[in-house]
Amino acid sequence: MDGLGRFAEPSVLILTSLAGGPKHGYALIKDIEGLAGTVVGPGTLYAALSRLQKSRLIEALPEEERRRPYQITPTGVQALRTYLEQARQVSTVGLKRLTAFA
């Protein structure tokens, strides 16, 4: 996930969605909305999908009824796992430190 900079959040949401199975654009938007309560617009989605493909973290599958599904690659699985484990560590420490303010 290094180098994603300001695009990390949409990329993590897309990879997390695709970890549940292949999806096309609209299905990704709806799944991300359900899992994160965040609406990812089509422009943001397709720009992130393009970056993720170039990084070989996802791959496009054959078109189905004018829809192009995507799936996470083994490299994407490892990148997502690494990112989420680091985020969990930071979250755990941050929440523990916030108890001083409760």
TrEMBL record:
GO molecular function: DNA binding
Taxonomy, superkingdom: Bacteria
Keywords: DNA-binding
Keyword DNA-binding in annotation: yes
InterPro entries per UniProt: Metal_resp_DNA-bind_regulator (IPR052509), Tscrpt_reg_PadR_N (IPR005149), WH-like_DNA-bd_sf (IPR036388), WH_DNA-bd_sf (IPR036390)
Any one Pfam family match given in the protein's UniProt record, by short name: PadR
Domain named Transcription regulator PadR N-terminal: residues: 14-81
Entry keyword annotation includes DNA-binding: yes
Protein's name in the database: DNA-binding PadR family transcriptional regulator
Originating organism: Kribbella rubisoli
